[in-house]
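Limitations
The C-alpha cells in this dataset are predictions for the assembled complex, not deposited experimental models. Users should treat interface geometry with appropriate caution, especially where small molecules or nucleic acid strands are included. An illustrative entry is reproduced here so readers can see what is and is not provided.
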Amino acid sequence: MSTVESHASHEHHFAHHFKSADHEFLTSKQGIWLFMVTEILMFGGLFVAYFIFHHIYPGMFAEGAKSLDWRMGFGNTLVLIFSSFTMALGIHQIQKGHNKKAVLSLALTILCGAIFMVVKYFEYTHKFHLGLYPGKYLDVAKVGAEHANLGMYFGFYYLMSGMHGLHVLIGMALIAWVLFRTMRGDFHSHYYTPVEGVGIFWHIIDLIWIFLFPLLYLVG
Amino acid sequence: MAATTHHHNPDVNYINEFKGIGSWLTSLDHKRIGLMYMISVLTFFLFGGIAALGIRLELFSPGQTVMTADQYNQFMTYHGAIMVFMVIVPGIPAILGNFFLPIHVGAKDVAFPRLNLLSWYVFMVGALMGIATLFMHKVDTGWTFYTPYSIKTSGAATMMVVAAFIMGMSSILTGLNFIATVHKLRCPGMTMYRMPLFVWAIYSTAILQLLATPVLGITLLLLAAERILGVGIFDPALGGDPVLFQHFFWFYSHPAVYIMILPAMGVVSELIAAFSRKTIFGYTAIAYSSLGIAAVSFFVWGHHMYVSGQSETAGIVFSFLTMLVGVPTAIKMFNWLATLYRGSISFQSPMLFALGFLFLFMIGGVTGIMLATLAVDVHFHDTYFVVAHFHYVMVGGTLMALMGGFYYWFPKMFGKMYNEGLARVTFVFIFIGFNVTFFPQFILGAMGMPRRYFDYIPAYESLNKISTVGSWLIGIGFLISLYVIIDGLLRGKKAPANPWGAKTLEWQVPSPPPHTNFHHDPVVTAGPYEYR
Ligand SMILES: [Cu+2]
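Predicted assembly:
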C-alpha cells in the first residue's frame, strides 16, 4: 500500500467498496449501460404507439410529415452524427493524456448540440406560426388539413422530438460538466469514467434521433 | 491489508457511528437508506390501511353507510395507488433488499451508493406528490387509471400520474443498483450459486424493474399528454384506442405483480431454510424459477383484457401463456415443501409467517390459474373473485413475507430482540383476519358481485359483513405488530450476532452490523444453507 502514496497525486481515489480503480470503472460502465436500456425501452414505448397509429392512419401521418422540412431534419442528423464523432474523439484524447485537445473536442460537441437545438427552435416556432399545434389545439379548419385528426400526428411529433430534445439538453449539460472537470484536471489516462459515461449517453441520444428522423420527416 | 490491523470497538455500529438527523439524510450507507425506506413505507402503509378499513366499513351494509359514492371511489383509488406504488413495489426490495443484499453477497455497499440515496429522495418526491393530490381535487380513477375515464375526470389525475412516473424512476434506479451489485460486487468465493436465494429473487425483480418500468413511465406520460394536449391516442372520440392504454399499462403492471411477489418468495426461501435447519431443497431450481417467472411475465399481460375487446386468438394465446407462470411457481412451492420434509422445524414467529405464506399463496396461485382460464374468466372478470385472488397473492403472499422478514431480520437491523410471544399473537390475528376478510370475497365473486362498486344487493350482505369484521382483525394484528416493534426497540434485550443459528453472511457479523458491514473482508468457501 505504501507505494501508492508516492504517486497518489496521479492515482484516482476509488470508493471504499471497490477493489481497484479498474473495478470501479467497469462497474460504473455497466451501470450506465443498464440505464441506457431503460432509455431505449422508454422511447421504445413511444415508437410502438407511433407504429400502431401509423398503421391505422397512414394518410394522416403522410400529411403531417409533408408539412415538415426534411432538409432541416437531415441537416440536424448530420450535425448529431458529427457530434458523436467529436465526443468519441474527446474520450480518446483524454485516454491519451491530451487534455487540451479533449477540451476542444468536448466544446465542439456542445456546439453541435446547440446548433441542433437552435434548428429545432426555428422548426417549432415555424410550426406554431402555421397553427400546427399538437392534439386538440390544432384547428383543422384554420390550417386546411385533409385529415380531421392531424393533431395526433403533431402530438407524436412534439412528444417524440420534445423528449429527444430534452435529452439533448441534458446531454449538453453533462458534457459541460465533464468539460469543466477536464479543464480542472480531474481526468487523466487512468481515470475518465464520467467522460466515458456521458459519451455513452450522448451516442444513444444520437442513435435515437437517427430512428426519429425518417419516422417523423420521411414517412409518406 | 491495512484494515485488518485496526482495532474494532464492538459497540460502534452503523446506527451510532454517526449522529444527528443530517447524518441520516445524507447517508450513503445502504443499511441506513434501507431504514429510511422502512420508515417512509410504513407511514404510507398506515395511510393505505386506513383507506382499506374505510372501504370495508362502507361495504358493511348496502346503500350509503359512512361515505358518499364519490368519496368511496376516492378511498378505493388511494388505497390501491398507495399500496401498490408506495408500499408493495418498494417494500421488500427497497427495505430488506437494500439492507441485506450487499451483506448477502459480501459487499461493503451497493455498487452506486449515491444513486441509492438519490432513489430514496426521488421516491419521496413522487410519494409526496401523490399524497398532495389528497389536498387537491381527489383522484377517483382507481390505481389503474383506465382511459377514457381518466382523461375526462376532474380529479388531479395528471399530478397523480406524474407522481407514479417519478416513483417508477426511483424503482428503476434501485433495480439498476442491485443488478450491478450482484454482477460486480460479490466477495471472493461468492459465486452466483453461493448467493442466498433472497439475492436471486431480488436480482430477478431488479431485471423486471429495469425492463418494465420505463414502459409504464412512457404510458403515464402519454396519459398526461392526453389530458393536457388532447393528442387522441387513447381517446376514441379523437380516433384513438382506449384498449391500447390497457395494453401499455399491463405490459408493465403484470410484470409489476412479480416485482411485488418475487422478493417475497426470496424472503420465504431464507425463512424456510433457517427454521427447518436444513439445506434448501432444489437451490438451482428455485433460483432459475425466479428468472423463469420474470421472463414469462412479459408475455401474459393480455389476461387482463379477455373481455376488453381484444381478439379471441389473442385471448387463447394469453390464457395459455398465463398458465405457464404456474410451472416455475409450482417448482418453488414443491421445493419449499421438500425442504420442510424431515427438517427440524421450529415455529418461531418468522417461520409462522413463512408457513402462512405457503398456505395463502397457494390459494392465491391456484385461483390465478382459474382466472387465467379464458372461459371461466368471462364470468369471474371484474367480480370480487378477482379482488380475493390478488389479495391472497399481494397480502397473503407479499405482506406475510414482509412481516416474516421484518421479524427475522429485526435483531440484525436494530441489535435488539422483540417479544416473541406477542409476535406470534400478531400472526394469529393477521392470518385469521386475512382469511375472514378475503375468503368470503371468493364466494361473493362466484355469486357475481362486481368489484369497485359502492353499493350491492341485499343478497350479498352477510358475506360482506363477515369480510368487514375480518378487516378489523387484520387492523388489530398490525397495531399489535407496531407495539412489538416499538417495544423491541425500547426495551428489547440485546440481540446476539446469530439468534436463529442461520448460515448466510449477515448472521456472521455483529448485530447491528458495523458501518462497512464486515470487520474483515469476507471470503466465502461454502453455500448459504449448509445446515446438514
Ligand atoms: Cu396480470
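Some entries come with short summary sentences. For this one: The pocket of copper (II) ion is lined by residues B 254, 257, 303-304 (CB under 6 Å).
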